[in-house]
Amino acid sequence: PAGSAAFLGLYLMFGYGASLICNLIGFTYPAYVSIKAIESSNKEDDTTWLTYWVVYGVFSIAEFFSDIFLYWFPFYYAGKCLFLVWCMAPVSWNGSQVLYQNIIRPCFLRHHQIVDNVLGNLSTKALDAASSVTREGNAGPPVP
């Protein structure tokens, strides 16, 4: 196990395709245990993995905007992989819990009402537009 971990660490630092390996580590195991959580009757594991996916999503969006700069740093993918492993670690102080409780949740609580209002308005406009298109489509072609 220690040899495998050392090889993986070195590969993430110097190997071709380190991005793919890192993303597989950050996605494959969490996806598998998320499916198991969905299929179990225990709600606690659902919350654990939903929290992971929220943090993973926020991280992915932040990485999209900063990746052009970050991937030039040596050992970026090794650091990213360690970050993702910390986020999924089976301890109460894992990255997902720490980041969600201290950053994401407070931000959500401050802004969720505004987002709900915007989404509600967009939903209403989309339904109105769809209804209008449906009415116009059912009217048939104009008579000359």
What's the helical proportion of residues? over 70%
Poorly predicted parts = none
Number of helices: 5
Radius of gyration: 22 Å
Protein name: Receptor expression-enhancing protein
Main location: membrane
Membrane topology: Multi-pass membrane protein
Transmembrane segments: 6-29, 50-71
Q: If you had to describe this structure to a student in words, what would you say it looks like?
A:
There is one protein chain. By secondary structure, this protein is an all-alpha fold. It has a domain at 92-139. Helices cover 83% and strands 0% of the residues. It has five helices and no strands.
Give a summary of the structure in a few sentences.
With 144 residues, this protein is mainly α. Helices cover 83% and strands 0% of the residues. The longest helix is centred in the C-terminal third of the chain and has 44 residues, at 95-138.
Secondary structure elements and pairings:
Layout lengths: L1 H13 L3 H22 L3 H28 L5 H13 L6 H44 L6
Helix pairs in contact: 1-2, 1-4, 2-3, 2-4, 3-4, 3-5
Which properties best describe this structure?
mainly alpha
